[in-house]
Amino acid sequence: MAAEPEDHPDIQVFDEIRYIEHLVRTAIARKLPVGLTYPQFEVMNLLSRRGDGITPLEIARALQMTKSGLTNTLQRLHARNLVRVEHCQADGRRKRIWLTPDGRLAYGQSMVAIRPKMEDLRDGFTQKEFRDALPFLKALRTWLGEKPSVS
Amino acid sequence: MAAEPEDHPDIQVFDEIRYIEHLVRTAIARKLPVGLTYPQFEVMNLLSRRGDGITPLEIARALQMTKSGLTNTLQRLHARNLVRVEHCQADGRRKRIWLTPDGRLAYGQSMVAIRPKMEDLRDGFTQKEFRDALPFLKALRTWLGEKPSVS
DNA sequence: CAGCTATAGTTCGATATCGAACTTGATTAT
DNA sequence: ATAATCAAGTTCGATATCGAACTATAGCTG
């Protein structure tokens, strides 16, 4: 809900965080090329930024998705030929995921669509403001994340 | 994804926010009484905190849900007799939503289940830390929210 | 080596979420 | 007054998300 002054500061912080998360998600989702959803973009973003060839479990952990949720998303990306799936020969249980050329193209188009908004944001706020906000957010995330898991 | 040092501060901030939102959501969801889901709890939480008798549209706006998403949740809450729905006589298009006694009971049980974690949190961080984090978060949310909407 | 345990991924059913189209009731403009 | 427009809510189809149960492979232990 919208944070309101009568709330305790901690409640207000969580309300603002929930709101911001939602705004970012919808802002990005609405700019994506047709056919791409936000979670699909996130997976491709991870593959592009953190390197190809990682396993589904690594992706799920990095994106706070469940294994079953990621299976779903990867199947859709694969159906559109945006990722390639390889069986790991060293460990028969694992798979490794790569972006295909089509995948890189779609990712590039997504980034082009998102760029203007990101540039506006960097005009509206300084990098120092973001840097100054980080320690508390990291501490909060770490505290909340003691006993994490991926199903 | 997990924020990593090589990222720009703004990216890291959004990653941390996404992570925190997810941790809070799952932490609460796992403590709720059986049969209650996180969005159902959020609706009851709003009714309890901001007052009974508000309309579905007001709830949707406050919780960043779409109208159709809220219709779904309200139908489930109503099916379990946790909310009461009244047709607004002043405006035939609107409805007004109340918690039922069962709803208040379920909400109370949820809060009892969540309380220990909240108290731990208030031991781990000071209210000043939350207060100090608020101005930036509010500014960011406001900036992102220019041109908001509810479908 | 045989069996137990742990890990990686999938399947399934239930709920959530979104957007578009639709219905119905209010409001506005001429 | 009546037609056009707007506002509140629902329906529908598609995708997402979660947890539990399941399969298959790997690794460990006696």
Task: Describe this structure as you would to a colleague.
2 copies of one chain form a homodimer. With 151 residues, the first copy, chain A, is mostly helical. Chain A has a domain of 82 residues: Arc Repressor Mutant, subunit A. Chain A contains 6 helices and 2 strands, in the order ααααββαα. A two-stranded antiparallel sheet of chain A has the order 1-2. In chain A, helix 2 packs across helix 5 and helix 3 crosses helix 4. The longest helix of chain A is centred in the C-terminal third of the chain and has 24 residues. Chain A is globular. The model of chain A has no long low-confidence stretch (mean pLDDT 93). At the A-B interface, helix 1, helix 2, helix 3, helix 5 and helix 6 of A face helix 1, helix 2, helix 5 and helix 6 of B. The structure holds a DNA duplex (30 and 30 nucleotides).
Instruction: Strand order, main sheet of chain A: write it out.
Output: 1-2
Order of helices and strands of chain A: HHHHEEHH
CATH topology of the domain at 33-114 in chain A: Arc Repressor Mutant, subunit A
Radius of gyration of chain A: 18 Å
Question: What structural class do helix, strand and pairing data of chain A support?
Answer: mainly alpha
Short note summarizing the structure:
The structure is a homodimer of 151-residue chains. Chain A is mainly alpha-helical.
